[in-house]
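G., the chain you wanted modeled:
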Amino acid sequence: MLKLLKNLFHTTKSNVEIPKNSAALFPHQNADGWIYPYPATTLLNTELRQKYLGLIWQQVSMTKEMFNSIYQQPIERYAEMVQLLPASENHHHAHLGGMLDHGLEVITFAAKLRQNYVLPQNAAPEEQSKQRDAWTAAAIYAALVHDIGKIVVDIEIQLQNGQQWFAWNGLPSQPYKFKYIKGRDYELHPVLGSFLGNYLIPKEAFDWLAQYPAVFSTLMYVMSGHYDKGGLLSEIVQKADQYSTTLALGGDINKVVQRPIQSLSKQLLLALRHLLQQKLKINTPQGPADGWFTQDGLWLMSKTTADQIRAYLMEQGISVPHDNRKLFDEMQSYGIVESTMENTAIWHCRIKADSGWSPPNTFSLLRIKPEIAWDNIDDHPKYFAGNIIIVNNDDKEISNEKPVKKTSINFSGEEKIQIQSQENIENNSQENISIPITNNSTDSTNNIEEDSTKYLLNLFEKSPQELINTVDDAIVMETTILEKQPQPIIKKTDSDKSCKISAEIHESTGDRFINWLKKGIFEDRFPINKTTAKIHLVKDEVGHINLFLVSPSIFELYFQQSGEVYEQKDVIALQYAFQALGLHKKRIISDKNKQDSVNFWCCSVIGPRKSSRLTGYLIPNTELFLGSKVLLPNQRLTLIEG
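Predicted structure as tokens:
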């Protein structure tokens, strides 16, 4: 076998030296959010990815030179093709570079799992030994392309010159941005594996594998997404993919009870959103469906939803209650589903579609707020063409008004996500204040620590080791958005204006304002993320949720609620007092060779009819005002970094 491979591959030894300690730090994006393209040597030059390559080599019986030809080169082509794209929009490995990390991880698992299978089945030992390396290659190649179709049919990629980039065009020639395609076909990307595999896998490898018809045909089935015809090779790749996904989501692939990296409430939320994207049928007009979306919220069939959430989480190695009533109680206590007036999770309803479909029986439904069901509020479907009629135990129609009850999601113990209304925000021009606008933004370094390497290293040891979780939520990066934000001309603030207030008054006035703000938030006196709210929650470029105080409105509200007579100079003085506390984050701007900073940030607002902007202060330390609560960001607001 090795002699045959040597005859097929006539290549020289690679001149690229694998660094012993490769902690390659390179800038991901420029100031305008364009992502730099990199060659494979740079993309793979991190400690984590080098360890993956080392683990893969350990599972194949060949020299380093042969490994470079058969496996290293396809992996390098794969790296240049996927660049820094994520593996999913908001599920596993959703950070920049997630597709490359996930791909290497799946290959590593597949190479190891293949050692546990005797292939081909029911063949003589001599034949199995003869085909051993071919089946190993098939497992690695199938794992290599299992998700690569996503970068063609799930993601739209645009180069800086405005042209669309496709994977088969090779290394991007310019910086790029990307966005996920709405309404994408989730069953299409596996079919493209064999097509794109032709650009990755050398023809000599196909010539070699074609000498074994069973290996070749099975590989073609799996690479084309026909897992039902891929036999044990499909099982190897699917298990490897499942293990990688499980680690990323905090589950335990060995089904050992250990503390997960994410709380059950977060897992339930991720499972729900995953099912809405790929499984559940919503708003079927002519007959039964899994759910219906109306102005009152998302209505889901209770049993179907519970069963599918349970099945999905159990596949990830995550323990969930087996009894639906207990699962409903969990979802209700976390605020994932809305409670009825009787404080139960189940709503009894009749469905009446405009198409004429109106079953006589009532349905047991769960009601969920749109901002919980969809991470991006714009992803929800159109409203159901019909009515959801709530009935009581006597089958009589009752009011469809929502109970007046604060909904919260407890993320573990004392952690909570306070769910706030994501109503459409219209033009709040009266809340705007002029600020200087620049096209540059603060550079940020994102170090992604992948502890799954330790698990993989332990997996390859003879003695069992403790499972180490993979990804920390803190390092998950937000997907780069392709949509261009409008840039209206805004007057610049006079930076020379100052107020002659002593340091003592600054501190005293600022502290009183902060205490008033904290008390109001604690007592739920201030709406958050609503149409006329003065307080919002927004994500920055690295996905961190910040408190956004609309200025000058929030400071004027302070005087109004205090009953004080005030003038514009008093509002400005209060702003200076707040700034003196140093709680806000300044925005760095660059002008030629100079750098400066300003106190104000700007958010673009997407309203039902038009767009507008809000100006205010950005406070990274949300815990100061919200305690252990982690709030959902306002999907209608986008922080303008530049």
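The longest helix spans residues 503-522.

Shout if anything looks off.
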